[in-house]
Design brief:
The complex is a heterodimer of chains A (about 190) and B (about 160).
Chain A (H helix, E strand, L loop, with lengths): L2 H12 L3 H23 L2 H17 L10 H27 L21 H6 L2 H10 L4 H12 L4 H8 L3 H18 L9
Chain B lengths: L2 H8 L1 H8 L5 H13 L1 H16 L9 H13 L2 H25 L13 H14 L9 H5 L1 H10 L1
Classes of the chains: A mainly alpha (about 190), B mainly alpha (about 160).
Chain lengths: ~190, ~160
């Protein structure tokens, strides 16, 4: 969708045209759910977060003026919602599971996702599960920055803008994130696979 | 200088930024020249790139049908669509409540406009305030026969 089409749709949404809003949702949802999925690690939570972001867009459409792009706005909103979600998840686990060791797997993770398609099940293979566990070793901010840079391929400058951080801080977090992941997934390095 | 010391002096964080294309042109040129001379950094960069390229993708892209389903779900949550669902439900609830009240003959328990006792009592209390002596009210019946009393008085 080009910027002019988007401006037109936004103007129509401001006038109460719900079909225009539906067009915006359909244009952005695949990418936005994909982003949320990468950030939080599962599809159900990702869809919840994406839905919340779109409803926030609908409620706040009058404040989206000028050069603000819908995709940028949604990226920022989904990132913030994902940060909140992951922080709540970490807190819940601390409170409810009382795991003896951080190495121990969360019982919820060992339950297969009944909604997963064969392709998803293939992707959620052993390496994927290990990556998911390794990502949990990172701080929420490190995980966000690594995912946005590595999987979403966003420039660090843009990530800094999304997370309202200095670019130098983002670089430091990225470096720490990659160091931790390399330590956790040693066997993915060299010829050991 | 050992290989380890060499890597540290070469700053591995720069290699990470080099891999992601995040260095400015001057730093990028410096790293490219450095890599030609430094076998340790070349090995480190190769290992880093191998690791990062082996990381699997997280999640997967939604198909068109899933996108439409998600779109419908979001649209159903808009305030206008939620009202559509609640209006008939509210109407039927109110009708049911009214029928129940009629059946149980409860309207009599609600205030009616006919008696209006509070207004009347306010007026009466106002009139009472205007009277100089409340005891006079007890003798008001005597005023009806005031003329007769005067005649009897004149006749002696």
């Amino acid at each position: 969708m080009n910027p002019e089409q988007e401006k037109l749709l936004l103007a129509q949404v401001r006038d109460g045209n719900e079909h225009a809003f539906e067009a915006l949702v359909n244009a952005h949802s695949a990418r936005i759910i994909g982003l949320a999925w990468k950030l939080v690690g599962n599809r159900a939570d990702a869809e919840e977060i994406a839905q919340e972001a779109f409803l926030k867009l609908y409620r706040g459409v009058s404040s989206l003026r000028g050069e603000s792009r819908v995709a940028t706005w949604l990226y920022r909103t989904v990132t913030n919602l994902a940060i909140d979600h992951l922080r709540r998840q970490k807190l819940k686990r601390k409170i409810f599971f009382f795991r003896q060791s951080e190495e121990e797997q969360d019982p919820l993770e060992s339950v297969a996702d009944p909604a997963a398609s064969p392709r998803e099940q293939l992707l959620a293979g052993e390496t994927g599960r290990r990556l998911a566990r390794a990502l949990e070793k990172l701080s929420t901010r490190q995980r966000m920055i690594f995912t946005l840079r590595h999987h979403e391929e966003l420039p660090l400058k843009e990530i800094a803008g999304l997370l309202k951080l200095e670019e130098g801080t983002v670089k430091a977090h990225l470096h720490r994130a990659v160091s931790t992941l390399r330590k956790e997934l040693k066997d993915l390095q060299g010829d050991q696979v | 200088m050992t290989e380890r010391e060499q890597i540290l002096s070469c700053r591995p964080d720069q290699l990470l930024l080099f891999h992601y294309g995040e260095l400015d042109s001057a730093d990028r040129l410096w790293i490219e020249q450095h890599l030609q001379q430094c076998a340790a950094c070349r090995a480190e960069l190769a290992e880093l790139q191998l690791f990062l390229n082996r990381l699997p993708e997280v999640g997967s892209e939604l198909g068109p049908a899933e996108v439409r389903r998600f779109g419908s779900r979001v649209m159903a949550q808009l305030p206008s669509n939620r009202r559509h669902f609640s209006r008939p439900a509210l109407g039927w609830s109110l009708a049911g409540a009214a029928l129940l009240l009629i059946t149980l003959n409860l309207p009599g328990q609600f205030p009616s406009e006919v008696p209006q006792p509070p207004k009347r009592s306010v007026k009466m209390s106002a009139e009472q305030k205007l009277l100089p002596d409340p005891d006079m009210l007890q003798n008001l019946d005597l005023l009806d026969n005031f003329d007769l009393v005067q005649k009897l008085d004149r006749l002696g």
